Amino acid sequence: MDWQPIWITLKLAATTVGVLLLIGTPVAWWLAHTKSRARVWVEAGVALPLVLPPTVLGFYLLIALGTNGIVGGPFESITGSSLAFTFSGLVIASTLYSFPFVVQPLQGAFEASGRNYLEAAWSLGASKWDAFISVASPMALRGYVTAIVLGFAHTLGEFGVVLMVGGNIPGQTKVVSIAIYDHVEALEYSQAHWLSGGLLLFSFTVLVTVYAFNRRLPVHLS
Amino acid sequence: MDWQPIWITLKLAATTVGVLLLIGTPVAWWLAHTKSRARVWVEAGVALPLVLPPTVLGFYLLIALGTNGIVGGPFESITGSSLAFTFSGLVIASTLYSFPFVVQPLQGAFEASGRNYLEAAWSLGASKWDAFISVASPMALRGYVTAIVLGFAHTLGEFGVVLMVGGNIPGQTKVVSIAIYDHVEALEYSQAHWLSGGLLLFSFTVLVTVYAFNRRLPVHLS
Amino acid sequence: GEVTVAVASNFLNPLKTLIQEFQKQSGHTVRTVSGSTGKLYAQILHGAPFDVFLSADSERPRLLEQEGQAVAGTRFTYARGKIVLWSADPHRINADGQNILHRKNFRRLALANPKTAPYGKAAVTVLKRLNLWTSLSPLIVQGENIGQTFQFVATGNAEIGFVALSQVGDPRLKNKGSRWIVPEHLYDAIDQDAVLLTRGESQPPARAFLLFLKSDPARERILNYGYGLK
Amino acid sequence: MSTIRSRFKIQYAGFSLETDLNFPAEGVTVIFGRSGSGKTTLLRCLAGLEKSSAGFMKFGDAVWQDESKKLFLPVHRRPIGLVFQDARLFPHLTVRDNLLYGYRRTEPTRRQIELDQVVDLMNLQPLLDRRPQKLSGGEQQRVAIGRALLKSPRLLLMDEPLANLDAQHKQDILPFLIRLKREMRIPIVYVTHSLSEVVQLVDTLVLLENGKSVAAGPANEVLSRLDLAGKVGPSAVGSVLTATVAGHETEFGLTRVQYQDHSLYIPEQPLAVGSPLRLHLLAQDISIALGEPQAPTSILNRLPATVLEIGSMESKGSAVNLKLDVGEPILATITRKSLAHLNLKPGMQVYANVKAVKMVHEIEEY
Amino acid sequence: MSTIRSRFKIQYAGFSLETDLNFPAEGVTVIFGRSGSGKTTLLRCLAGLEKSSAGFMKFGDAVWQDESKKLFLPVHRRPIGLVFQDARLFPHLTVRDNLLYGYRRTEPTRRQIELDQVVDLMNLQPLLDRRPQKLSGGEQQRVAIGRALLKSPRLLLMDEPLANLDAQHKQDILPFLIRLKREMRIPIVYVTHSLSEVVQLVDTLVLLENGKSVAAGPANEVLSRLDLAGKVGPSAVGSVLTATVAGHETEFGLTRVQYQDHSLYIPEQPLAVGSPLRLHLLAQDISIALGEPQAPTSILNRLPATVLEIGSMESKGSAVNLKLDVGEPILATITRKSLAHLNLKPGMQVYANVKAVKMVHEIEEY
Ligand SMILES: Nc1ncnc2c1ncn2[C@@H]1O[C@H](COP(=O)(O)OP(=O)(O)OP(=O)(O)O)[C@@H](O)[C@H]1O
Ligand SMILES: Nc1ncnc2c1ncn2[C@@H]1O[C@H](COP(=O)(O)OP(=O)(O)OP(=O)(O)O)[C@@H](O)[C@H]1O
Ligand SMILES: [Mg+2]
Ligand SMILES: [Mg+2]
Q1: Which end of chain B has a smaller Cβ tally under 10 Å, C or N?
Q2: What pTM does this model have?
């Protein structure tokens, strides 16, 4: 059994979720609390990557991230290495693609807890940042769990984009989903079944654990 | 310009979202309110289709829905027509694949509004069903909007599953995402760009409209 | 009558022009369903409504025949794939393309996944026969199919790549970039077989189409697209 | 007399409710107790919002819950009106639609009250088209009461409905609750931590302590039990007397009532001469004199009384409760110094003086 | 004297707040008004939770807000403690961590109070490890007060903090608020719709009506203004007198105080002889006599007084307010019948009788 794709997949999913949380949190926060008119446009923009077929999105990303692309070009001239066909490129692509799955639950959670508890935290001497960390985030814990689960699962299952941007380089960008796909295409059905079964079992175990833990969280808003 | 894939895509997305809401609502409701220990298992199960690469999921669905499959076989012997390579088959596949995107936001919304308002409704003579319709649903309106947007967008962009189960049959199961993919494969880049651009523009317009409307909804829980 | 042809993606473009001609001649209509060979194969096994299968290899049609999904004796090679080392840069590859491979003055070499795509398998054979496989394999990026491999190269993300001659032979790309047509002794023939599926057995237009594919004018067109023939 | 019989047992970590109550299905039953004593929990049990393992509840002849027979009438089938401690107005509906929510779910033939009436009574006109979340705390509570009333319930359950209301609004709403009870003959179970708020209303009093009922019965009896005086708090200890309207002195805004052989003045009541009527006397509003005053005073009401019993002197503090007989037993609170000064002993004849203005809030029509 | 100066203007659909207030930055300032009069809104402005277009606020010498200079000190930088009308306890923290939330964010050197003290005072020991959502309404409110106190604020803003508490808990907490004010010298702005609740506390009174301040000033003055009597409600009209402790009668649980030339009895206070002290007299607890009583009565306190002014007779109802001079002006409420009966006229000499037990809740140490 080839463990490398599994390891890369997990690394990709974990990194992507990390980046997603880092970027998604402020965006979700802004969306939940702003009164700006720009809000609906940003909201729509966030959901947009969903609309394109992954392979097509991957195609455009390949163009953008490539040596001559508007992102990849400058990146290459600064760092000397390209983005396409690298792990970093994969992370960027997956992040873009899974973005709505992280932003939406977070936004929902932030909206649900509202301003009242923040006001209480401020009045107790917490700065906006402190109140966010010590009140808004833990109260949005269930939103975070949903965001992480969706983001992680979606990255695990990601395929079209990854294939296109990653170039399926063994040990670098060859992830499990591609490996399974290869087996199916190559008529190696039993390998495909094993790998799929393993992925499902693993994911199911993780999910059950996460949800069981989530269940025990004390935060209910009502 | 070939309008057929567009029409089929919209029909598929709309039907899928319809089916998703119909099935997803009771599931989300149950997940939000049950104290059963089965809950975490169901919760994990719902997220599971996400984990498999779409093509692989599509492959297994093909096996299940095909002429000799455990679903498709009986279906065919009863109705005389197969499920794989038909529009109905596509709807089933998309529904399964987009299930978590509908269930999760709904569940979140139902959990956020909690039991308190339901208790008030019951005490005012509303049956469980009535209270669900007249109180829980409108209060979860924003959750519904998120669910519909994610479900619709995800179905629009769906590709791997659809390609596998649907068989890319023009006029029946050839959707926009596949059409774009075909154009890219066939080096017809300008058609691909136009179709992608159109899809994006259309989706963006719909999304902005939906969110702008959503903004005006009076329901905020705090 | 109507006939549904399942075709490997790499042959879709030639097929389209062939179909125009066939429809004009016969009055039948042809619907095409394109995809990767592996996918189409799985779909046929599970009851896909296809009449004719134009594979990218010879193995899948043979398997279908064995499994009774295809009509025995109808299988034949409709085209033989040729691979080409190609770059979008008009000056990168000169007449003897081997040079660039030996000099390694590129960062990425694209080829199709050898496990799933016959063109990928052929490309690997080429490298092995040139004794370059070990030294070049770190530079390889794999497209899932030959179409994706072409995009890697066309967008410049891979400087060079092994693609199908039929792709760069596409009239819309005539003389773009630079190329080295790989000598046929460096790889095993990529026989692309066609077969009549059981569903098409009773459909005269399906047989008519296969006959048309064997006809001289059709073969001529196929050759023009950069394929060889048996 | 039709009654509400109930028996509940609820176990929480650190708290348990265990009650077995039987109170009349008419008039106002006040459930009184300190914060955390289980009032809300008991009310929820009555409403059918908590399922207790060994619960039983019967409203008149109708059994609503009998766990031994697996019988449980769900909340929405119970003809109750429920006012929550937090208002719980539906955020997606305007005030008007909130008010009409229960009304629309009531069969037209069973409706006893209309929107306009409730709007007038609760002073809700300016709020009708507003959203609940923009209302002040008291405004929300008024809407919540109105909403429950518009369901025309046969039993009204209220959880501290007036806690967030100012005195004026309380005074506006209380008479309506009294009318509810009288005209619609609708029994009310009223949870409060402030007896003085409902002293005008209460017929039956249930005293909760730590999830147990420590006293239950006619308010009159419970309130005049000397041993409970410490539990209900100084502003609630008192007594209830039944009197008859004897005449009106409209020029002074007073009504004269006959209690036993004595005339008492109370603020004018719109009642015919001869009507029966109840008076609430707060123990702390009664002062004691040993004889008739020589100099005129502003105190209009004076009842000859016999000292029956003198409350415990153990408790520290300055006050002591007396039980007096004025035909019925009433309580009076005086200082221990006065007790010594007047040298009061059981059996002594005294006068109980009551300021009439103090009866404004302690009066209830029957 | 250091003051809190503020000027706010807030516009909502159907409601506007427009205030210009200046009250001392010490003692307790009560903001009083009917439900919906804008009390919460005003408090939020003071806390810095509402930004009003032309707002201005100065706490002592520190300008917290001056919109004309674009100056606005954000909420978390203001040394305030805020108790919300709804408790707003953090659902993800235990009661203990809720209590410590502000404490941990206060510099150790600025801390004036410790967890144990607050737990004792608010009776929170059994709740410490519980989750807020499982607490009863009153329990939540006590935790919220404790949480605000543990921040050691320099200004305490409280929005109806006792509305959900029973009399006993009110009595437990009030003395602590008094001590807060006295020992920590922490000014309190206290919003309530029930003046009787805070009559022990109030130094300065602001009367809100419809978003405007209709009266503001020392409670004493505002409360004894005859024209406002109708607005504050019968259970609040009253007066404040300053007296001195003259001695203790421990056997009766009483303290004797000297007011002008007169001795008065109040429930025993733990104060040294000679300490100054304030008395609250509720108008409705005062009765009038034209001379000394012949027969002994239980009324211990009697002040000679001169009738200064007689309130409007226009209002219907049985009661009328008098302004009496006992050295300072005080108010008394009697029936119109008594007024006629006693034939009271400005300038007449009378006695004002006050029951000592009634002063239990109306006493405040200075
Ligand atoms: N769901 C619950 N889980 C655990 N404990 C609870 C729960 N609900 C209430 N309690 C506890 O039960 C006790 C009684 O609560 P309840 O709400 O009935 O009090 P209450 O008399 O209504 O008080 P208040 O006057 O403050 O509203 C409290 O100690 C409370 O903490
Ligand atoms: N955000 C808002 N938008 C619109 N109107 C509001 C808003 N907040 C408060 N109001 C209105 O302003 C008025 C004053 O509200 P506020 O909460 O200050 O009253 P309050 O005096 O605290 O009343 P209560 O004693 O009932 O709590 C009310 O009529 C209320 O409906
Ligand atoms: Mg309660
Ligand atoms: Mg308020």
Answers
A1: N
A2: 0.81
